[in-house]
Every structure is written in structure tokens, then in C-alpha cells.
Design a protein that fits this description.
The protein has 4 helices and 12 strands; from the N terminus they run H-E-H-E-E-E-E-E-E-H-E-E-E-E-H-E. The protein has a 10-stranded mixed β-sheet with strand order 1-2-5-4-3-12-7-8-9-11, sandwiched between helices. The chain has one domain: L,D-transpeptidase catalytic domain-like (Beta Barrel). 20% of the residues lie in helices and 29% in strands. Belongs to the YkuD family.
Length: 199
């Protein structure tokens, strides 16, 4: 899903600025999509987004072991650490101040176009939310990585979104959201059992 002309111009400007600063980074090709992925994702309206939140291969700022997922809440970036001092960087939506969280977790399971069963505390806050089958209208989007802490479900997820215009903001109920194309890419790369650090 290439950016529109204004977004492309901003992306080129961002590239030049980063290159001038001496950092190295490059864009990462989109993953191959199944016919279901393509059909469902076509039903989620595209949104302009800051190219700073596009998917890039960058110098690793985390210093964690390869395979570790690191979420930088302040920067609104998720890093998947690669070998050789590199990381894949994805722009994310994070929890707003009231619902954000930090800590360590493990990817306990993964799901494609997951069903959504909002926790009881969320339903109490927002009585209009309800369980939904997977699909383009579902807030979890194309993929979800379910996080656990010592075998206990944290109720937090790394998942896609049906609101891509909010990438780079702090508006979720604590979960980490990516654009659907980005969460498919991440899902394809991260195994069950991977370590996740949110800081």
C-alpha cells in the first residue's frame, strides 16, 4: 500500500533528514497477503499517516537480543530486534495515560483475524462495546499476538486496527496497535514464546 503523493514527499524528506543525521534505515517490502487478507484489508479505509511511523529496517536502539520485541511507548515505535545490530521498526498506537502499561511478557499465542472479547472492565467503562467475530470491522484487525506474564494472560495484545489514522497516538486501552499490513509482517516474523518488553 504505497503512500499518496503528499505522504511520499514527506517520506522522501524524512529519508533525507535521517540520512543527513548519519543513521541508516531502509523500507521493508510488504508481506505477501492471502486472498482473505487482501479482501478484508481492502474494506478498512486507508488513512494518511506520518511516514515516521512507516515500517523500516534501522540501527537497533534497544540493545536487546535478536528476536525480542521492544515497544517504546514515548516514541510510539515497536522494534523487532534482528541480528547484526539491526531492528525492524513499526509505528504503533499505544495506551493513553490512564490505561497504558509497561513490563515484560511473552507471546503466548497468535491468531489471524481474531475474534474480540472485550474484558469485563472495558465493558464497564464503555457499555456499547461487545464481542465481535474476526473481520475488517473488528478492532483487533488482521492479526493478534496474545501476551502472557509467567503463564497468566495479561489481557494486553499486540494487534492490527480498524483505525489506521490513529497510528502514532496514545489512545488505546493499553494494547499496542499496528497498521494491518504491519501486523501481518510482524506476525509472520515473531514466534510463540518470543520475549516482549514494553517500556
Amino acid at each position: 500500500m504505497p503512500p499518496s503523493t503528499p505522504a511520499r514527499a514527506a517520506l522522501i524528506g524524512a529519508c533525507l533528514a535521517v540520512a543527513a543525521a548519519g543513521c541508516s534505515f531502509k523500507s521493508v517490502p510488504d508481506p505477501t497477503l492471502s486472498s482473505r487478507d487482501a479482501a478484508f484489508m481492502a474494506l478498512v479505509p486507508e488513512a494518511e499517516f506520518d511516514p515516521h511511523f512507516a515500517r523500516y529496517l534501522v540501527d537497533d536502539p534497544t540493545k536487546e537480543a535478536p528476536g525480542t520485541v521492544v515497544v517504546d511507548i514515548k516514541a510510539r515505535q515497536l522494534y523487532l530486534v534482528q541480528p547484526d545490530g539491526k531492528a525492524l521498526r513499526y509505528g504503533v498506537t499505544v495506551g493513553d495515560e490512564a490505561y497504558g502499561w509497561t513490563g515484560a511478557a511473552t507471546v503466548a499465542r497468535k491468531a489471524e483475524w481474531p475474534a474480540w472479547n472485550p474484558p469485563a472492565e472495558m465493558v464497564r467503562r464503555w457499555p456499547h462495546v461487545h464481542a465481535m467475530a474476526g473481520g475488517p470491522a473488528n478492532p483487533l484487525g488482521a492479526r493478534a499476538l496474545y501476551l502472557s506474564d509467567q503463564g497468566r494472560d495479561t489481557l494486553y495484545r499486540i494487534h492490527g486496527t480498524n483505525e489506521p489514522e490513529k497510528i502514532g497516538q496514545a489512545v488505546s486501552s493499553g494494547c499496542i496497535r499496528l497498521r494491518n499490513i504491519d501486523v501481518v509482517d510482524l506476525y509472520n516474523r515473531v514466534p510463540v514464546g518470543a520475549r516482549v518488553l514494553v517500556r
